[in-house]
Design a protein that fits this description.
TIM Barrel, single chain, 8 strands, 2 domains, 15 helices, alpha/beta
Length: about 325
């Protein structure tokens, strides 16, 4: 199984839509929905997970599990119950976000020093949502060290989590290589529920080594999939021809059209440049494209520069028309 990771400010519903159309992903997890002292209205959940209006699936039919983050068990449970009524694939709990602002307010990875709090939060959510609905969790190895990693994972498993994704770094490590896959194996051996390995999976070779070292059959990929949208397909079918730049361009065109409908005007060009910046790791053509559009904010010029290689003029004209109407 291959899961698409939640990445705040990057892997939102627009990119989930496009990457699941490319293929190879079995399930997505949304960016976190912060729960803090209030019962959120339905629109707050739908804003982050608009797939709730499509049976909890992307347009490609890939299920989306909605992620909550909070440290108040009553508030978290009440919001989980409301969210569950909207029909996500399941509820995921965030114990992995390393952001300082989040951690300062007692959320995300900061809770990995408090396995007893994790136990209460997971148990409260499990009791609050219907039994058939999965409750999963995503964690790092710890805050500043990994000495309580197994204790935290056991707190999740013993209180109703059906699956744990482990990002094989501590909060202090951030995203700095390497990922400590061998510690995932320790967790995998200590709990009786499925464990998913996450961290530093950029290539099919990385995926194979991660599976071998972590002992996990399931993987979660994030930045690797953003940088190489064909990565999940390549992991599944190593002999398959890689996704070329020419094959990727129509997906990027669809992404551009989608953000012009869904994203506020001042953020549109930045979102495309953000993706191009990641694609430079895999595609030399992305480096050239990024250099060309990096300082351009006019939607029509961005379209003309980036999508001039799309096979049909009609496709380019349609994209320019969208950009013109929403500029």
């Amino acid at each position: 199984m291959i899961l698409l990771a939640p990445m705040e400010g990057l892997l939102d519903f627009t990119l989930r839509d496009i990457l699941t159309r490319v293929g190879g992903i079995d399930r997505c997890v949304s960016e976190f929905i912060r729960v803090s002292g209030t019962l959120l209205p339905d629109r707050a959940f739908i804003r982050i997970v608009p797939e709730l209006l499509n049976g909890g699936r992307t347009r490609a039919g890939v299920p989306v599990r909605a992620q909550l983050m909070g440290s108040d068990e009553v508030c978290l449970a009440e919001n989980a119950a409301r969210l569950a009524a909207l029909g996500p694939d399941g509820i995921d709990l965030n114990f992995g976000c390393p952001a300082k602002l989040v951690n300062r307010h007692g959320g995300g990875a900061a809770l990995l020093d408090e396995p007893e709090t994790i136990a209460r939060l997971v148990g409260a959510v499990r009791r609050a949502v219907p039994e058939p609905m999965p409750v999963s969790a995503k964690m790092r190895l710890g805050v500043n060290c990994d000495t309580r990693a197994i204790e935290c994972a056991q707190a999740m498993a013993d209180n109703g989590a059906s699956e744990i994704v482990v990002h094989a770094r501590t909060k202090a490590h951030g995203y700095k290589p390497p990922a400590y896959w061998e510690r995932i194996d320790d967790i995998h051996r200590a709990v009786k529920i499925p464990v998913v390995a996450n961290g530093e999976i950029w290539t099919p070779d990385d995926a194979a080594r991660c599976k071998e070292i972590s002992g996990c059959d399931a993987l979660m990929i994030g930045r690797g999939m953003v940088s190489d949208p064909g990565l999940a397909l390549a992991i599944r079918w190593p002999d398959r021809a890689p996704l070329t730049w020419q094959q990727l361009l129509p997906f990027m065109q669809e992404f551009w059209k989608l953000i012009h409908v869904q994203i506020e005007p001042r953020s549109r060009a930045g979102r495309l440049k953000q993706w191009l910046n990641y694609l430079r790791r895999r595609y030399p053509e992305a480096q050239e494209a990024y250099a060309t559009v990096r300082t351009i904010n006019d939607p029509l010029l961005v379209c003309r520069h980036l999508f001039s290689q799309v096979p049909t003029n009609e496709a380019l004209n349609q994209t320019e028309a969208v950009a013109s109407l929403s500029a």
